[in-house]
Design a protein that fits this description.
491 residues, alpha/beta, FAD/NAD(P)-binding domain, protoporphyrinogen ix oxidase, domain 3, Polyamine Oxidase, Chain A, domain 2, five-stranded parallel sheet, 23 strands, 32% helix, disordered N terminus
Amino acid sequence: MDSPAREAEHPRRGPGALPHVAVVGGGISGLAAAYFLRGEPVRVTVLEGSPQPGGKLAASEVAGITVDAGAEALLARRPEGTELIAGIGLGDQLVTPGTTSSAIWTRGAFRPLPRRQFLGVPADLDDLARSGVLSAEGLARATSEPELPPTPRDDDAAVAEYVGARFGREIVDRLVDPLLGGVYAGRSEQLSFEATMRPLADASRVHRCLTEAAASLLPPPQPAAPRPPVFTTLAGGLGALPAAVAEASGATIMTRSMVRGLTRTPGGWRLLTGSAARPEAIDADAVVLAVPARPASRLLAGVEGASAAAAALGEIGYASMAIVTLAYPRSAFPGPGGLAALSCSGYLVPAVDGRAVKAVTFSTVKWPHLLGDEDVDIVRCSIGRTGEEAVLQRDDGELAALAAGELSEATGVRGAPVAARVTRWGGALPQYTVGHLDRVARVRAGVAAQPGLAVCGAAYDGVGIPACVATARAAARQILGYLKARQRQGT
């Protein structure tokens, strides 16, 4: 016989009690949603299944230096992330990169990433030619793009299909795919042009060619003027952000509290946590689902009238990856000054070149605040694309050796690293495949039909921290609007 669900520490709402909002998921999206509910006449509980909140933001020491194990930067030009950081009192800890110049390791050499491009789509064909990324044949095909007639496009298309039709396949393989792979761990043959390059997709509808559309999204070239930083981070690492947001939110944070069921009640919602043998029920007036698409789909599958939203969420796949962080004596790198002699913040590797490592960040070059008395350079190697799950089945030692070997081939670093850390992110990155915007629209329409329910997270409008924070703010506003309307109606 099944055990009856025990009531958790949250009592049912009585006369005069504050409305209770349950946030399912304690990653940065869920914590930000709780933060945006602060100061309102509600009480908030964040339910996180793992032992600590934070999701994919974490940091730990490598060779005595605190280095992020997950996301290590956020876009500075999107204000949502920096505004959140300022709001919780950490604005004075924001730091900017020492250099933002990057390279592509392809065709046997480091080649500078073209400066004027949008996710690999060139805005300046002369700049593309100077980079040397493409072969002579590939460059000739790409530079013919402004002369091509318009390429027909339905509501959506794969990035490789549309961009390849404009510039040729080589620019997709050696520029666009590496950049998208770094963001989504996905492949341009599957990723949606409309969802992953939405500003460019919009601009392409009003410009004669895709080169002009990309140029319209970039500031005009000003060689003499310093460009504002594209990225920023916290001096103590972005891994410090979740705890600070959680504290600033004032919410109750319940870890090891996996939500296994969600049902409607006459007064709101009931969430089922705990084990099958000892289930616990938590009642809430409103719920924010801040978990990945598949768990959200499973929870909504049991809610009457939410089957369409659940089905759409179930169509969103995820890619796994690993971050291998290596520490070397500064003298192990050829040339004076260690990694700094390479004059870039890291490099990308096209999948077509057959390497396991898809991206490398020279952490102590990109973030000079990491330099200390340890006389070491820190390098982060990213491994894992959709369809390459087999490489991630290697043990930590094999992954670290694989990353070190490819790094040595690219940079000439000598000897073994003095420290290594392997961090695995299973099912970490949602795949915005063709039709993604339609799927998101179906999810939001289904959720909007459920009073007191909202969703947020990386599965919807972008995988970066600012995009996640933006969805969290929208979810909080949606919940507050519902609760205020209910209060006015006296229910």
